Amino acid sequence: MKMYCIADKAEIEVGLKLAGCDGISLVDKEDINKKIDEVVKNTEIGVLIVTNYVYQLAKEKIDYIRLNKKLPLVTII
Question: Which of 21, 23, 68, 71 is most buried (CB neighbours < 10 A)?
Fold first, then answer.
């Protein structure tokens, strides 16, 4: 299983990439929601890491995933 990060700052994305976690930096709500949908459809991704900013923009979608889906496990940093 892979980890994936959706961050709002490039520094966080780069730091997690150094630790072996793929990711992307996004700040637009529409782009964030599209990327979350892509990640959820990808069965290889077991952990989704999102920053607090991303969580605030996509709270309903992320909460739904956390409560109703087994994978990916969503972690907020």
Answer: 23
41: domain CATH number is: 3.40.50.10580
Provide the token pair at 40.
Answer: 């959820």
**For residues 25-40, b (16+ Cβ closer than 10 Å) or e, as one string?**
bbeeeeebbebbeebb
The pTM of the full predicted model, rounded to 2 decimals, is 0.90
Total structural domains within the chain? 1
pLDDT tens profile 9-41: 999 999 999 999 999 999 999 999 999 999 999
The range of the structural domain enclosing residue 19 comes to 2-76
